[in-house]
Amino acid sequence: MLTPAFDLSQDAAFLTIAIRVPHARVSEFDVYFQGADFRFFARPYFLRLTLPGRIIENGSEQGSYDADKGLFTIQLPKETPGQHFEGLNMLTALLAPRKSRTAKPLVEEIGTSSVCEEGEEDDDEEFDWEIEQFPYEEVSESALKLQCHYGFGDLRSGVFQRLQDEFSDVIDIKDPDFTPAAERRQKRLAAELTKFNPDHYLADFFEDEAVEQVLKYNPWWTDTYSKMMAPLGKSKEQEDHAALVSFSEEEKFQLRKFVNKSYLLDRRTHRQVYYSLIDILLAYCYETRVTEGERNVESAWNIRKLSPTLCWFETWTNVHEILVSFGRRVLCYPLYRHFKLVLKACRDTIEILQLGKSAVLKCLLDVHKIFQESDPAYILNDLYISDYCVWIQKAKSKKLATLAEALKEVSLTKAQLGLELEELEVAALLVQEEETALTAAHSTSRQQTPPSGSEAGALEEPDSTIPSETEDSGSEPEELNDRKSKTVSSLRGPFLEENSALLVNSDGVCSEVALLGSGASQEKPLVSAWASGGSRPLIEELGEH
User: Fold this and answer.
1) Are 93 and 87 in contact (CB under 8 A)?
2) Do β-strands 500-504 and 71-77 pair in parallel, antiparallel, or remain unpaired?
3) What is the signed CA dihedral for 248, 254, 256, 261, rounded to 10 degrees?
4) How far apart (Å, rounded) are the C-alpha atoms in residues 393 and 292?
5) Alpha helices of 96-232 — where are they, by DSSP H?
6) What sign does the CA torsion over 163, 169, 170, 176 have?
7) Predicted confidence band at 29 (pLDDT cuts at 50, 70, 90)?
């Protein structure tokens, strides 16, 4: 038999079930419902649902069939009108047989009262998110090897004994089957210190235009959270928040493919599952924001690299150390390394948790799809994400709300990351101020330093030749004579005799004169025979004289 695609909705009085059965024999179909049980059969399809509330048969039930779409729509009256059925979009949980929800485990450890099913927990029980401390006990090396578990709820071990070479690019830890939790953390912290690049961090700190653009992006849960917090939505019950989150047909198909499971988790492991959920959601929120919802080939790498749960099989004892670890990895590995992104991802995670398990499940389904499309990362679906997608459907919304409050109360500072970020920023700002001061001083000195030598003469000469308005007109000939003498001296070259010079007459014609040396201090010009002969070449060969 085939399980058909289906969808559930409700109003105050009726539960509506839409069942898509293309190519079915609609002439022969059966519908059975009583209490919390619903069954539908139309060859070759069979659907059995365990409903979260009770329905009755009182004559007001209705049904219709759309032949074009192959869609059965069945309306069933609620036993208690006005009752809200929670978890109608948790398709995997609805498909589970009723007996599997309340059945006791076939093997139970005697004397362990803390082992309980998630569905059997008391809703009114206060969940303590504080650090749980245990006295130190010396453990032998052989016992340590037996404790090297990982995966969802630490339920896996021995997976990487033969697959280490194949999946070495997926996880950072080497030989996880024989590496205790304490040693994993030490190696992770050492690897982060080695990877941290101060230059990359400071570059993003000072040139943060791209980071500011990423911070302005609104992912899908932002609008949904705004609707939940709207004035009209504040009066609604907590159960109504699930209606704000919708699933695509692809997501519904994946939910139907999951195998329903029951998880035997003690209190310590149960708390650890919630803590690891925060770690995975933080990485997912960062990836969604920096890519603005457009997945790329680096998406799987970003999520698993930013989540120590996924790449180091890390375990947690409190919320604060999760934020510290996430902050360190954001500043060590991805493209954008800015502390504002750490705080923004934290606020995004709080919003998702406050939206309830429907929003959390939608995020986990997206992570599942990203890993499934990445060749080496699909193993993380088997170890963590698939189990989370099944488990979260049975989780209590109240626990997620208290987890969001615990995350909201935790504050994170740069000093707590252990990367000396504040010292780096102060030193960089001082260097920047010094460079600015040196640049300003150099610019000022160039403006104030007087020109030297020929530069000063070249700058002052035009001013000296410009007559003022009060000068006598008789000074102009003197200045013209000075200019002529300078021109003559500049024209004198190696082709003129030692005791000769060029003379420019009033018509601008140059003539050669010879200087007769005498005992006196003055030299008188001797005009050559061709001085008055009109235009002659400026320079003639010596043989002509």
Assistant:
1) yes
2) unpaired
3) -130
4) 27
5) 99-102, 141-146, 181-195, 198-206, 209-215, 220-228
6) positive
7) confident
Give the whole-angstrom CA distance, residue 409 versus residue 438. Answer: 46
- Cβ–Cβ under 8 Å, residues 374 and 424: no
72 bridge partner residues: 19, 65
- Report the amino acid identity of residue 212: E
Identify residue 75 by its one-letter amino acid code: Q
Cα separation, 510 vs 495, in Å, equals 15
Strand (E) or helix (H) holding 406:
helix 397-409
Integer Rg of the chain from CA: 44
- Residue of higher predicted confidence among 362 and 169: 362
CB count within 10 Å of CB 334 equals 19
Q: Which two tokens stand for residue 327?
A: 């902050």
CB 352 within 8 A of CB 221: yes
In contact, 414 and 422? CB cutoff 8 Å: yes
Region of 42 on the Ramachandran plot (φ > 0 left; ψ -120 to 50 alpha; else beta): beta
Task: Extract the tokens encoding 390.
Answer: 């099944």
Give the full edge-to-edge strand order of the sheet including 524-527: 500-504, 510-516, 524-527
First-to-final CA distance of the chain? 129
Q: Is the pLDDT assigned to residue 160 strictly greater than 90? A: no
φ and ψ at residue 540, rounded to 5 degrees: -120, 155
Cβ-based burial of 369 (10 A; exposed 0-12, middle 13-18, buried ≥19): middle
Judged against a pLDDT cut of 80, whether residue 142 lies above it is answered with no
For residue 385, the 8-state DSSP code is I
Closest by alpha carbon to 308, among 171, 193, 166? Answer: 171
Alpha carbon 46 to its chain centroid, in Å, reads 44
352: part of which helix (H) or strand (E)?
Answer: helix 339-355
CA dist 299 and 296 (Å) reads: 5
Residue 342 CB contacts under 8 Å (≥ 6 apart), including other chains? 323, 326, 327, 330, 331, 412
Tens digits of per-residue pLDDT, 122-132? Answer: 444 555 555 44
The set of residues, in sequence order, having a beta carbon less than 8 Å from that of 10 and lying 6+ positions away, is: 16, 78, 84, 85, 88
Burial of 54 (C-beta count, 10 Å sphere; 0-12/13-18/19+):
middle
Q: Which two tokens stand for residue 447?
A: 């403006």
Asked if residue 52 lies in contact with residue 207, where contact means CB atoms within 8 angstroms, the answer is no
DSSP code string of 419-469? S-HHHHHHHHHHHHHHHHHHHHHHHHHHHHSPP-THHHHHHHHHHHHS--T
**Cα(119)–Cα(116) distance, integer angstroms:** 8
